[in-house]
Predict the 3D structure of the following.
Amino acid sequence: MIRTKKYVMAKIKENSTNNRNRRFLTTCDMTYAVQLIGGRWKLLIMVNLDKGSLRYSELKKSITQITERMLTLQLREMEDDGIVKRTVFAEVPPRVEYELTAIGKELVPICLQLSDWGTRHRLTNSFSGTSFL
């Protein structure tokens, strides 16, 4: 099974090239960092949480294209990686809030730099007719 942290995605052979490469690449610090923030939604989640703690529904509203399942999986992975802190309040109905940890806050400027780079890169490629989307 492919496990992204503890979440099962699909079946994979233990000695497959993909699995061996995955283990090898985690020894590289840069690859480790990219895996922590990798994925389509984690950067958006971090930037939204930089404004302060948010409830699940507030996050879902701010990232309209993400599915509930994907948001839940991404938040769980980010919590396991120490990027996001999940706080459950003992209230009826239950209230859960998410906020960035110190590690998560440290990553936000990097996310914003990536956004700036993406803006410049997209503008450059739009003039040359090249499209990566």
Remarks:
- Residues 40-128 form a domain with the Arc Repressor Mutant, subunit A fold (CATH 1.10.10.10).
- The chain has a mean pLDDT of 84.
